[in-house]
Amino acid sequence: MKTEHAELVDRLARTRWMPLLRLIDDADVEGGPPVEPDPAAVEPYRWLLTRVGDGIRLTQAGHLPPAVVEETMHTLGWDADWIGRMNREDQTYPVQELRELARRMGLLRKHHGMLLRTAVGRRLTDDPVALWRHLADRLPPARTEVERLAGVLFLLAVAAARPRPHAVVAEGLTALGVVDAATGHPPDESDAFGLARDTWAVFRQLGLLPRRPRDDAAPGPAAVQFARAALRGRDAAQRPTAPPPRVTARGNEAVELTVVLRDTEPAVWRRIVVPTSLTLRQLHAVLQTAMGWQDYHLHLFDIRGVLYGDVEDVPGEIGDEDTFTVGDATAVVGAWRYQYDFGDGWDHDIRVGQRLASVGTGTPHCLDGARACPPEDCGGPPGYEHLLTVLADPADPDHAELLEWVGGEFDPDAFDLAATNEILELYDRHIRQDTRG
Predict the structure, then answer these.
(1) Strands across the sheet with 365-370, in order?
(2) Cα–Cα 20 to 30 A to 115, which of 140, 180, 187, 304?
(3) Domain check: are 207 and 350 in the same one?
(4) Whether residue 72 sits in one domain with residue 140
(5) C-beta contacts of 81-86 below 8 A and 24+ residues apart
(6) How far is residue 280's CA from residue 277's CA, in Å, rounded to a whole number?
(7) Neighbours of 26 (CB within 10 A)
């Protein structure tokens, strides 16, 4: 994957939100067969480069001449569903948008009132395969960081053949914590369309997506290929495949841990198997995933009085959770404490159980468990107890408000073992795999 996109994809993976992990999987940005260019798709850009030729004199207002605007609309077949005379570029946005995006893609430039091809534009005019790769490699054409985030999310959605890709963009931006500066609200589908519009426009200009951005039809194979090429980068086929992670004898050992959330009755608990090679920071992510927390707050481990985690301002002996492993912990103690959210004060007791010679693939997995994880920010054990009391009593004056706060429904007895293991496997593959060996 292109380096500039990999950071965002890693941020998405670290949300551990199942739809986003599946999106990354389905986008197939790290593997799969080589992407095959579609030279016919780039005809709008190739034609514009050809038409510009040695240069076109712009109008005094800086627009294309009316005759060129009309010629472009007719030649590219964009006049069929356009209302208007199509003789002014500033009132014929398909042409204006094509020219502007060609400039931002490094194909055209303005100089002394002339529209000219750049050196790259001249070189690619008669090489549609290279032009296809160039356009893919320059996506998304973002002006701001949030537009870049939206553009990459749009590419992931198309590469994964998701219907309504802008809805996926809105979900991804929300998961990353993006909100409207004026209202404080997360982006909706309309906002996402505005943020990813230029990226969508390139697909539309190439005939890869319909003009109606909310069409429920899934993107076709040509759009999927173009999006994957944009995410992988033009040199993806030449990059060597990373060797499989090394598995050492110690790294293949495992231990069973029982995790019980204190002060919940009946208890919220999980029994998991993890490699002893996991660092405590990696174990923190596994615990968040297995329990059902969202990693919104600080955490610490207390192992025989030594504190690991977000403990800069906490008195006591401090250890390094990036180097201290589960194996190190189980070698000196049979139980320890894990605290999450210092405000609400969620304490977990972790008890060491059976030691295993192997964890199979090395992926942490859950053996058993009970009850749903409490909602984030519900006030710790006392607040959670109050929440359950109110939700169980429709006559309570706070029932409607708290029911809306939890999203319309909350079953404290719910626990899905299969779903927990699916997200543990996705988390492990997308995040921990880069640190193995």
Answers:
(1) 317-318, 306-309, 299-303, 335-340, 346-356, 254-261, 268-275, 365-370
(2) 140
(3) no
(4) yes
(5) 81/211
(6) 9
(7) 15
Name the E strands within 76-177: 108-111, 114-117
Shortest CA distance to 284 belongs to which of 298, 271, 273? 298
Same domain, 3 and 60: yes
273 vs 362: CA distance, rounded Å: 10
Say if residue 427 is exposed, middle or buried (CB neighbours under 10 Å; 0-12, 13-18, 19+): buried
Q: pLDDT (tens digit, 9 = 90+) per residue, 147-178?
A: 999 999 999 999 999 999 999 999 999 988 89
Task: Tell me how many domains the chain contains.
Answer: 2
Q: In this predicted structure, what is the pLDDT of residue 213?
A: 60
Residue 273 lies in domain: 250-371+415-435
pTM over 0.90: no
CA distance 63 to 130: 28
Q: What is the mean pLDDT of the chain?
A: 89
The two three-digit tokens of residue 116, written as one number: 């000219």
d(CA 87, CA 96): 11
The arithmetic mean of pLDDT across residues 205-231, rounded, is 87
Phi, psi of 25 (to 5 degrees): -60, -50
